[in-house]
Design goal:
single chain; 391 residues; Rossmann fold; formyl-coa transferase, domain 3; 2 domains
């Protein structure tokens, strides 16, 4: 297996002239925690100049932990390529700086507590009236209308409120998805909406007022469970299996390595029976021949597979599954993923030294290697930016 240093480098590339798609775009960002910082980081990765305005104590995500060379994991992950400027928008001088930046900005992004920006004297409607070309993007928990509009919202709260937790985990209890799925999904929805607004502004010359709610983001992702609930029965929590497809689950091998398999259709089931189980008669058995039949007889289906897998070592079984073109995966832990041959990484400079991060998922081939800006120290660019915008 190749080493991490040799095999896990990023292959994202730039246009042949070295510029990035959003080079020349100025983003002013009042981002904190995860959702909006994700949006802003994606904009920075694409070449935008992102000025992150931070309170004197900094984005509170700077202090969740100190795992990465004394720096917070979340901050390291989400804030490369930004400029950090300390600003207190209750102070006249900092308000002047904020207003001067907005006058030149292409995008203004914020995820402050609902109503906080308006209380400071900067309602989005007023900013849009003053700066018609400005694209404003506001991220909130529940949107601008409805009885929950003023509530604070965090990732796990929305996982619970949206029903996501109710379909996650094993049969005994709801569970949290192990990463900040709501924040990440919301941040990416905001990113794509900003890109669409930039394209539209190129045609019309007009900015936009974008509102992205964390709850709405999860309703998009919860569409299939909601359809089941409205037209049939809500999905049950089933751990590492699938409520409407069988076989789709985890089966231990003889040497104790669990394998997750996914048989998506009846043709694959026939291949699986013939080439993996060595029991071709199961492909036409009425109890198993179709997916609805296999779901109805899930216990029997899983029992047959579990018995066979328990007689096989993981390496030999993996070769059989590959040959039969059956989808499968190891049930890795984090340590296993750190050794994974498909883990690509990028190196980013930080105040405490270089750190490696997972590479962005989208790769554009045909140019040079992509580069990513460093992590800023708190307030690192304050004086430079003040001089630039206030003189």
């Amino acid at each position: 297996m190749p080493s991490i240093a040799d095999a896990m480098t990023a292959h994202a590339t730039l246009p042949r002239d070295g510029t990035k798609p959003l080079t020349g775009t100025l983003v002013v960002s009042l981002d904190q925690a995860v959702a909006a910082p994700m949006t802003a980081r994606r904009l920075a990765d694409a070449g935008a100049r992102v000025i992150k305005l931070e309170r004197p104590e900094g984005d509170f995500a700077r202090s969740y932990d100190d795992i990465v060379k004394g720096q917070c994991t979340h901050y390291v992950w989400l804030n490369r390529g930004k400029e950090s400027v300390i600003a207190d928008l209750t102070k006249p001088e900092d308000r002047r700086l904020f207003e001067a930046m907005l006058a030149r900005a292409d995008v203004f992004l914020q995820n402050l507590k609902p109503g906080a920006l308006a209380k400071l004297g900067y309602p989005i409607e007023g900013l849009r009236a003053r700066h018609p070309k400005l694209i404003c993007c506001s991220i909130s928990g529940y949107g601008e209308e409805g009885p929950y509009r003023d509530r604070k919202a965090y990732d796990l709260l929305i996982q619970a409120e949206s029903g996501l937790a109710s379909i996650t985990g094993g049969p005994d209890a709801p569970a949290r998805v192990g990463v900040s799925l709501v924040d990440i999904g919301t941040g990416l929805h905001a990113y794509e909406a900003i890109l669409e607004a930039l394209i539209a502004r190129g045609r019309t010359g007009q900015g936009a007022d974008i509102r992205v709610a964390m709850f709405d983001a999860m309703m998009e992702w919860m569409a299939v469970p909601l359809l089941f609930g409205e037209h049939g029965a809500p999905p049950r929590r089933m751990g590492l299996t699938h409520f409407s497809v069988a076989p789709y689950g985890v089966f231990p091998t003889r040497d104790g390595s669990p394998i997750l398999i996914a048989v998506q259709n009846d043709r694959e089931w026939s291949m699986f029976c013939n080439e993996v189980l060595g029991r071709p008669e199961l492909a036409t058995d009425p109890r198993f021949a179709t997916n609805p039949a296999r779901v109805a007889h899930r216990a029997e289906t899983d029992g047959l597979i579990g018995h066979h897998f328990a007689t096989q070592d993981v390496e030999a079984l993996s070769r059989k599954l590959d040959t039969a073109q059956i989808a499968f995966a190891r049930v890795n832990d984090v340590a296993g993923v750190l050794r994974h041959p498909h883990l690509r990484r990028v190196t980013v400079a930080s105040p405490s030294g270089p750190v490696t991060l997972p590479a962005p998922p989208a790769r554009v081939l045909g140019g040079g290697d992509a580069s990513f800006g460093p992590l800023p120290a708190l307030g690192e660019h304050t004086e430079k930016v003040r001089q630039e915008f206030l003189g």
